[in-house]
Amino acid sequence: MLRLGMFAAFLMSVGVVWGQMPDRTPNTRYPYVTDMDHEGAYVLRWGLNATHIWFEVQVKTLGYVGFGISRDGRMVPADVIIGWVAGNQVHFQDYHTERYEAPTVDSSQDWLVDYGYEEAGWTVLGFTRALDTCDTLGDFKITRDTQRLIYAYHTEDPDVTSPNPLIRHTVRGRKSVSLMTTSHPPAELPIDSSVIDFTNDNFSIPVANTSTYNCRLFDLSDVNVKYHIIKMSPVFSPGMEQYVDHMVLYRCRIADPASLLVNGASFNCFSDAPDHVQFCREHVASFGHRNKEDFYLPEDVGIPIGGTGESNLYVLATHYVNELQTPNLVDSSGIQLTYTADLRTNDAAFLSMGNIISPNWLQYIPPGEPSFQQRAYCSERCIQWGMNSTQNALPMTVVGAKFHSHDLATEMKLRHVTKTSSGAYVENPWLAYDGAFDSDQQAFRVAEKRRNVSFTDHLMLECTYDSSTRGFPTLGGWHPDNELCRAYVLYYPRKMLEGCMSWSNYDQLRNQIGQPVNGSDVFNTLLATDWSNNNVMRVNLKHALQNSIENAQCWSSRQDPSYAVDWFQQTDITIQTPYQPTETRTCV
Ligand SMILES: *[C@@H]1O[C@H](CO)[C@@H](O)[C@H](O)[C@H]1NC(C)=O
Ligand SMILES: *[C@@H]1O[C@H](CO)[C@@H](O)[C@H](O)[C@H]1NC(C)=O
Ligand SMILES: *[C@@H]1O[C@H](CO)[C@@H](O)[C@H](O)[C@H]1NC(C)=O
Ligand SMILES: *[C@@H]1O[C@H](CO)[C@@H](O)[C@H](O)[C@H]1NC(C)=O
Ligand SMILES: *[C@@H]1O[C@H](CO)[C@@H](O)[C@H](O)[C@H]1NC(C)=O
Ligand SMILES: *[C@@H]1O[C@H](CO)[C@@H](O)[C@H](O)[C@H]1NC(C)=O
């Protein structure tokens, strides 16, 4: 229960120039901003340093406002604050939830209010806390993992005379945000900055299929000057956000697109793509309705666009999901790139990594597994092949990465392995890691420290899935019910290498599966397995997947589309010294 006497309160400061509400403009104090809801009624801004994080919430209510960090997105257990402005006073306290009733006031008050005011129907609260408050009873530590943020608000302030002032119907919701890895906007964009839109053209979303992949072509052959992409943003047609599952912009170079393809042409990406489009696979940008924050490249990094010999064909692939088969939906959503002629120091690019899932769904997750691992490799030979350019001698400096997976993924890890002169494999610190992955939040993760990958290294992507609540096997695939294990790694200087994927050779697992296999198709045997009573098969599959022969494929589409293939046994690159992160706590 609330105890009135404990409210932290202070007077509204005077002389502040109130802005227009809501104010989503990043500024020095609050470089990061996100909408917590779909209605734009709850804006969160934040900033941080090595030890502290400070938030501002702007909420369309004159009532009370709640905000916090939940363990798994639910209201309990969670580390929360509640605040409101009444008269000239700001009321604010640090709580935690123990059960589905009024939260409990923390005995240690570690979230501290900086200011609060009401303006034009909005309540604004600013508050600060340590990343690690050391209050293990009331607070959660804020880490580089994806955090499950929760929020609530009410039209009125609590009736503090009531015995249970906070138990009332409120608007509430959740959003996953990675508070410590979000891209930082520059102090200001260069004055010559311009934008280019890659959008759909009044595409009629089909009702016959709930899931549609539409592709649209853009010919940039006449852009003869080299620019740098410095910012990427999604563009949503009004009201269409909920139907746009995600959008990806790919590109490649082909000699004379105009002779082969029609600029602006639109077609089904899977069934109707012209031959040349299949090879347009360099990842440039991606967004979805759950991942719609602007992405800013770091201030010394730009992705080249335009100029002699540069990629000239761009493909926007949009995945529409129309579950309710709503008719008459017309969409022109897409991706906007901001570019400048004021070139930055480093030419960067995305490297796509992961597990190949077509044509035979070469990924298989049995049901009932709380922690099932799938690995994908970018092999040493692929890296060597892809680095065979004029900048051969330079390593790849990794700036950060974006992970992509569906609902079962819980943990994503991009591992980096170096071969020592004695031939041993040593693991470096992870290039990217999310110990609390949420497929609803697939934003770019800026690396804590940049790291170099040399052409004698291996990269390994490790995806962990929780299939414990699924009664059926999950196969690799693009559909939301399937799974993926993907990473898009941003690095410089740009190399020929654009994609570097692998798949476990199930056929070669035949003798390790511990069960007679009909014919040579182990994958079909997996499909036919009854997992409710086959523990031997489970153990053997996991063992086999850790020791399999891996097929690797890497490609480039910027010069003439070209490929390299590779294969190796996973046991050939056994890591002698796995990387162990050390947890640093600032308290005892
Ligand atoms: C980090 O921010 C906190 C809270 O504003 C402040 O007390 C602390 O001095 C800052 N630390 C550094 C190194 O700037
Ligand atoms: C889409 O259709 C509307 C109305 O017919 C039209 O005004 C608009 O220009 C079209 N958009 C595009 C991108 O062609
Ligand atoms: C629906 O999707 C299937 C499989 O992708 C495809 O074969 C079929 O042509 C689609 N139907 C329509 C009406 O688009
Ligand atoms: C590397 O580049 C050189 C010169 O372009 C070429 O002769 C050689 O075949 C390339 N090696 C590989 C592995 O692609
Ligand atoms: C990566 O390699 C480049 C080129 O050799 C070097 O200048 C840079 O300092 C290295 N960066 C890191 C983080 O090791
Ligand atoms: C094995 O394959 C043969 C031929 O395809 C089929 O007739 C038989 O039913 C299969 N046996 C099992 C156990 O799946």
TrEMBL record:
<dbReference type="GO" id="GO:0006589">
    <property type="term" value="P:octopamine biosynthetic process"/>
</dbReference>
<dbReference type="InterPro" id="IPR008977">
    <property type="entry name" value="PHM/PNGase_F_dom_sf"/>
</dbReference>
<dbReference type="InterPro" id="IPR005018">
    <property type="entry name" value="DOMON_domain"/>
</dbReference>
<dbReference type="Pfam" id="PF03712">
    <property type="entry name" value="Cu2_monoox_C"/>
</dbReference>
<dbReference type="GO" id="GO:0004500">
    <property type="term" value="F:dopamine beta-monooxygenase activity"/>
</dbReference>
<dbReference type="GO" id="GO:0005507">
    <property type="term" value="F:copper ion binding"/>
</dbReference>
<dbReference type="GO" id="GO:0042421">
    <property type="term" value="P:norepinephrine biosynthetic process"/>
</dbReference>
<keyword id="KW-0472">Membrane</keyword>
<dbReference type="GO" id="GO:0030667">
    <property type="term" value="C:secretory granule membrane"/>
</dbReference>
<keyword id="KW-0732">Signal</keyword>
<dbReference type="Pfam" id="PF03351">
    <property type="entry name" value="DOMON"/>
</dbReference>
<dbReference type="InterPro" id="IPR045266">
    <property type="entry name" value="DOH_DOMON"/>
</dbReference>
<keyword id="KW-1015">Disulfide bond</keyword>
<dbReference type="Pfam" id="PF01082">
    <property type="entry name" value="Cu2_monooxygen"/>
</dbReference>
<dbReference type="InterPro" id="IPR000323">
    <property type="entry name" value="Cu2_ascorb_mOase_N"/>
</dbReference>
<protein>
    <recommendedName>
        <fullName>DOMON domain-containing protein</fullName>
    </recommendedName>
</protein>
<feature type="signal peptide">
    <location>
        <begin position="1"/>
        <end position="19"/>
    </location>
</feature>
<keyword id="KW-0325">Glycoprotein</keyword>
<dbReference type="InterPro" id="IPR036939">
    <property type="entry name" value="Cu2_ascorb_mOase_N_sf"/>
</dbReference>
<dbReference type="InterPro" id="IPR014784">
    <property type="entry name" value="Cu2_ascorb_mOase-like_C"/>
</dbReference>
<dbReference type="GO" id="GO:0042420">
    <property type="term" value="P:dopamine catabolic process"/>
</dbReference>
<dbReference type="InterPro" id="IPR000945">
    <property type="entry name" value="DBH-like"/>
</dbReference>
<comment type="similarity">
    <text>Belongs to the copper type II ascorbate-dependent monooxygenase family.</text>
</comment>
<dbReference type="GO" id="GO:0005615">
    <property type="term" value="C:extracellular space"/>
</dbReference>
<dbReference type="InterPro" id="IPR024548">
    <property type="entry name" value="Cu2_monoox_C"/>
</dbReference>
<feature type="domain" description="DOMON">
    <location>
        <begin position="40"/>
        <end position="154"/>
    </location>
</feature>
